[in-house]
Amino acid sequence: AGPFTVTCFHPATFQLTGFPGQEAVCHWISIAFCVVYITAMVGNCTVLCIIWADRRLHQPMYLLLCMLSVNDLGMSLSTLPTVLSIFCFDVIDVTFDACLAQMFFIHFFSFMESGILLAMSFDRFVAIRDPLRYATILTNPRIVKIGLALVIKSTSMLLPFPFLIKRLPICKGNVLSHTYCLHADIMRLACADTTVNNIYGLFTILITYGLDSVFIILSYVKVLRTVFNIASHEQRLTALNTCASHICAVLLFYVPIIAVSVVHRFGGNAPRVVHILMSYAYLFVPPVLHPIVYSMKTKEIRKRISRIFSRDFM
């Protein structure tokens, strides 16, 4: 028997990998991850509570921010069980089905985040291009429908992935490259033709990250055209300032994805730790920094946080 007991050509468990060769500082790494998770949880929950408590913030822009915060919490909770089990409890095994479930949710929340950022770019475009009709174009029920559409789209796109993995015989070992399960990482252990997995994986990436990023760029091209047509210099700066937090959120999401892709394809000689750190940046940086960026750049949220802290210290 043992951990590599095979059922239908699938290992009973996968073994996850932390930072190879860094076992001596494992406790420090666990502390760092605990800080990251606590920061992400507290930050996103604070944003949600502030928007929930203030009815004046029940507007499309802030509802979309709520969706982003809920999504970031989902992403953090998706990776938390295996990451902390490795670094805090030295448990590296995860069952086959649990691994597939984690794979699904990690990719699901990543796809959702891309769609939410696209919706937020459309929100900024409408707010600047047609402010008088903003409230009638982007109503709260319409925002809810956009959220449901994103959930349906992400679910339907990702539902085939577990079945595509299950049809493959896994016989090249059971050791994965990260502290969490990803489609490409599991697929490389298969000893059968993975063409269908590769083609469908590329298709989903182009449909989500590819199209979403193109539409986000087009939205901001139109935003810039509108802003440059404003006569007043102060009004231009005000209009651009309303987009600052969203632009930061887009960069925090897409820059790590691009960096991971570049390192994966052209960084063959880079140390293993570079590949690992880049993959962590892709999953952990946005949930930690999004609430910080929006707290600093959004006046209403910043005022509410300042009021809370001033009340606590009085």
UniProtKB/TrEMBL annotation:
UniProt-listed CDD domains: 7tmA_OR51-like
Segments traversing the membrane: 28-53, 73-92, 104-122, 143-165, 199-221, 242-267, 273-294
Protein name per the record: Olfactory receptor
Location, primary (coarse class): membrane
Organism placement in taxonomy: Eukaryota, Metazoa, Chordata, Craniata, Vertebrata
Subcellular location as annotated: Cell membrane; Membrane
Domain G-protein coupled receptors family 1 profile: residue ranges: 43-294
Keyword 4Fe-4S in annotation: no
Pfam families: 7tm_4 (PF13853)
Any single Gene Ontology cellular-component annotation: plasma membrane
GO MF assignments: G protein-coupled receptor activity; olfactory receptor activity
Gene Ontology biological process terms in this record: cellular response to lipid
This protein's UniProt keywords: Cell membrane, G-protein coupled receptor, Membrane, Olfaction, Receptor, Sensory transduction, Transducer, Transmembrane, Transmembrane helix
Family: Belongs to the G-protein coupled receptor 1 family.
Record has Cell membrane as a keyword: yes
Bilayer topology annotation: Multi-pass membrane protein
